[in-house]
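Exercise 3.2. Students should predict the tertiary structure of the chain below and write it as structure tokens, then compare their answer with the key that follows.

Predict this chain's 3D structure.
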Amino acid sequence: MTLIERVEALIDSIRPYLLADGGNIRVVDVTEDWVVKVEMLGACGDCPMSAMTLKAGVEDAIKLAMPEIRSVVSINPIAETVL
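Answer key:
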């Protein structure tokens, strides 16, 4: 299983929680320096709370299962806002 496939499998495990609120997430890339780039979709794409969802939900779940991942960042401008 490739690195990106491992990350996608982890995302699949938390996807139902995002779907329940009308959102979704797509893995765009995993960089050489262990940064996961995602796109927040649906309701998560423009939600002001998506930054919190990204860091406290998605990033924590991924880093718990894959400690080598340094961070998870969104390519959506609103989700990149630091709380």
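Discussion points: Residues 3-80 form a domain with the GMP Synthetase; Chain A, domain 3 fold (CATH 3.30.300.130). The first helix runs from residue 3 to 20.
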